[in-house]
Specification:
With about 210 residues, the protein is of the alpha+beta class. About 45% of the residues lie in helices and about 15% in strands. It has a single domain, classed as 3-Layer(aba) Sandwich (NADH Oxidase), CATH 3.40.109.10. It is built from 9 helices and 4 strands. It has a 4-stranded antiparallel beta sheet, with helices on both faces. Helix 2 crosses helix 7. The radius of gyration is 19 Å and the shape is globular. Keywords: NADP, Oxidoreductase. This is Nitroreductase. It comes from Allomuricauda ruestringensis (strain DSM 13258 / CIP 107369 / LMG 19739 / B1) (Muricauda ruestringensis). Belongs to the nitroreductase family.
């Protein structure tokens, strides 16, 4: 089996973390860089990522996470917060970065700027929020796979109250909303879930080759 499939087979949604084991600063930096390098529509990355190791903050988040122990036992809790609204500044800031990084005059990017703005700026607010959340999920998936490659366990979590997360983490008023959470750390030997066979649809059921 190739390493690609081995990593995906090894990974599972960890239900019980070993609270005594912490992700090293070096490995955490690798995970965050993998997240930063993730694909994003137009390259805009319309989200913000909060990396939480403070135990007091994790304790605050636990009741808003259906009291799931992963929140307090994991080494880090990583929250992907999508932009709920945006204007032309999203495109302008991105193209300023393009100009600086690639040494291209900003006026040379006007056509690309106009195209992106024509597709994004006038969308309804709900459509914008749904789109930015989907972008966050792309980075979320990349982070989860990068962790598996480092043999770091994760648990993807949607079982939480976004509004309470937003309040606790100070996201209110910043046009950000907690979209999805990833608990990161190392599995406990007591987590029986790790021994269960992975259950997925068969290839015949899942794929159609055209």
């Amino acid at each position: 089996m190739s390493n690609i499939l081995e990593h995906r087979t090894w990974r599972y949604a960890t239900k019980k973390f070993d609270a005594t084991k912490k992700v090293s600063d070096e490995d955490l930096e690798t995970l965050l860089e993998a997240t930063r390098l993730s694909a994003s529509s137009y390259g805009l990355q319309p989200y913000h990522v909060l990396v939480i190791s403070d135990q007091k903050v994790k304790e605050q988040l636990k009741p808003a996470s259906w009291n799931q122990s992963q929140i307090t036992d994991a080494s880090h809790v990583i929250v992907f917060a999508n932009a709920t609204e945006f204007g032309e500044e999203l495109v302008d800031d991105f193209l300023a970065n393009v100009s600086e990084t690639r040494n291209i005059p900003e006026e040379g990017l006007k056509g690309y700027s106009d195209f992106m703005k024509s597709k994004l700026i006038d969308l309804p607010t709900e459509t914008k929020s749904n789109w930015t959340a989907r972008q966050a999920y792309i980075a979320f998936g990349n982070l989860m796979q990068a962790a598996a490659e480092l043999k770091i366990d994760t648990c993807p979590m949607e079982g939480f109250e976004s509004d309470k997360y937003n309040e606790i983490l100070g996201l209110e008023g910043k046009n950000l909303n907690a979209a999805v959470v990833l608990a990161v750390g190392y599995r406990s030997e007591e987590d029986e879930t790790q021994h269960l066979p992975k259950v997925r649809k068969s290839k015949e059921e899942l794929f159609t080759l055209i």
